[in-house]
Amino acid sequence: MRSVTTTDIMPPAVNSKPSVRPESIYVVGDSHSLAYNLRLYTTGDDRQFLFQSLYAGLSASVCAGSDGELSPALAAPLSRAGLLVKVDGRYEAFHRTEDPQSRLFAQMEDRPRVDPPIVLSIGGLDVMHFGVSLSKIDDIALPPALTESTGPLSEPALFEAMPFDDAVLIFSDRMLPLAQGLRELQHHGFTRLALLSLAPPTPNDEAFRAMRATLGLTETASHATLSWRSKCALVANAVLASIARETGVLFVDRWSDQVRNGVALPGLLDDWMHLSTWASDATALAIIDRFGGAPVVPQSPPANYQVYFEDPSVPGGIREHTIDHADFTALRDARGDALVPLNDINELTRMWVNRARVVRIVGV
């Protein structure tokens, strides 16, 4: 098994061996795409993969084009990255165009004309509005395969809960433009496409409500629960998986690796919404693997971690400790609101931390 490491982008050292041209992987979509920008991964055989984020604030509703043309919302970021060129007023894929000027530029820049891997990170905005549209629905009844033995997804559904399949049909209608956009990308010659699953929602109710208020969204009491937003995310991922199957693109499903008993792993989300560095690295490695780039194993983990957790007894309500990888693993794998013993390597103290009170973990 070959190892993979991630590094910052650095200039080559003097007298180093000839540099390897990184193979670019593009992540297009909403703000969740930004976590991958300019992350470089190197395999044991010196093969490199450079992630480039093409942020466009995308929701599914703007992904469908017309008259055989790509949606402007999709075409704009791809054009900025040089993956599309305009020929006689119409977009063509850079790797397929017969335009003499574009082909000349490719030679001058020593730029390979290859079908680029493109990952679409879309659905986060759509699932928020989906929840708002179900204001008269208080619950979604999960099928047995998606229920958990403990945690927010273990509770019996309310008597008048919407069947999961009905929720999937409603969200599928909202996501139809995404399926059309994928087919139009394929028609333009982009065949190495993937959809990325949505990350599990924050278990922090106050952070969720604050985030919704920032976006001008309100919710009923039942919609403010972790159970409701987790079920909406499961509906969204079921629809994304279905779209991937129907259009013949890859689906990078990270849900089972990002939750424990249906709840986001501690430290998974950096700001109660977007993936933290270690979580986005793990997803990037899964993307490389799905595209068949190289067999991968997790990179060398950080030596230590900063853990932030709620503590009303201190100013600001947040306490911080530095722990080693062994304690991080124990905290990550603990269940629910279990008490976990942690050793602060700087203060040389030992404390018991309630897993449910952890709000952020950062590798250092």
Can you offer a commentary on this structure?
The chain is of the alpha/beta class and 364 residues long. The protein is 30% helix and 23% strand. The protein has helices at 72-80, 100-108, 124-133, 164-187, 205-214, 226-247, 255-258, 277-290, 325-333, and strands at 4-7, 23-29, 40-43, 48-55, 84-87, 90-93, 118-121, 140-141, 162-163, 193-196, 250-252, 259-260, 263-264, 304-310, 318-324, 339-344, 349-354, 358-363. A seven-stranded mixed β-sheet has the order 1-3-4-2-7-10-11, sandwiched between helices. Strand 16 and strand 17 form a beta hairpin. Helix 4 (164-187) crosses helix 6. It is globular. The chain starts with a strand and ends with a strand.
Summarize the structure.
The chain has nine helices and 18 strands. The protein is α/β, with parallel strands linked by helices. Strand 12 and strand 13 form a beta hairpin.
